[in-house]
């Protein structure tokens, strides 16, 4: 069973009525928007990496037990330039665009200069985030694109740099009960300093028609341990009183990126995992807007997604999906994906680990400061205010974690993830119980599954009272795909909405509840997949 990652997909901008089998709960009404690459070749040029493909949005609108589907390419500047030239003319992280050999020398000089001081792509193919009342397609550059969440029409191009000193911004955003959004970006070599900037966009921003980012507030900054090699990160953690930021040894070499075009290599080659370095764990107090005094660290690891973080009896507990190296990004080069299909390949299987940060370092040197009885995670006190953290392995072979977002930042029990124990291509999804360490799996035979999204039942009491939505790709495209609806408790199929469309493999998304339905307990959506750097 194979999925062709390099196949160009058709868009379907007009709504298509799904054939619903089963019974969708009456309370479930709203729109699930998903985002991911869908176009990989133009004319005689093609992208090298799956993450580089042109962003294709698709949505499932659920109303009164019925489902309508539509999809549309994000028509940003990158898309329009590429389509007009019928070739790739804007570089992505894993694909460097070179001028048409038929172009004159002036055009080639302009292309060279644009890559020495790059103006990054607005091909936002990774996630959907909300700022104020606006929805945006995003990747991890300084550009995002506002979209119409109902029609999927592309709207204004938004440049973070007009409002905040951030050159790179993480794909995942957090939301609080008041509707405020929290994001994190990197400011590179400004006034001789490189720093990580955590910022807040107030809920309701942009209601007067102005860009929501105009109201953005810097919450705090964290200095980078290296001026010209900042850490790459895809997400961060948030509790009621703290932010958790992992400064991992997966680093971007800024000088190498500036000379990549001249050297004939892509920007991704300038990202290196330094196995000899430690991973720094920054704990930021949301009230003081400063780091706590304890210097937490652990061994080298690569983290893309955080599951959840919470506070418990003088500790901050956070769960992440981690890897031993950065081989995952390398695996998604399209040529390598073709080689791996049907072959026994070396796969760096991800691990879901729990780390615990004690809020007090009172104790003797060499003492484990973790006092929680339900975890084997440790935090050993060292000299000079340092604490060495070792994580507890919760489970292996899982990715793209989602939770009941009402429990974000709070002690939780359940997460919903893609099962990737054999390869990074998910063929089943899993409900994981962090308390009992038990798994419940769903598999549909010859199909591929996307990130599962949990939607809580209105006024639910139990954490797992709701449904899980996931987009299923049929291994036989002629049969079309379907939106799967699972019961959150039993993890059994409730319904499926079949659509005669060859779905594309997406990354992350956002569920927008129908305001006419009393979603009193719904406070947002925790979004994310692998680090899309382009």
TrEMBL record:
Keyword Iron (UniProt): yes
Name the UniProt record assigns to this protein: Beta,beta-carotene 15,15'-dioxygenase-like
Keywords carried by this UniProt record: Iron, Metal-binding
GO MF entries: beta-carotene 15,15'-dioxygenase activity; carotenoid dioxygenase activity; metal ion binding
Family of the protein in this entry: Belongs to the carotenoid oxygenase family.
GO BP term, pick one: carotene catabolic process
Co-factor binding comment: Binds 1 Fe(2+) ion per subunit.
Pfam assignment, any one: RPE65
Coiled coil listed as a keyword: no
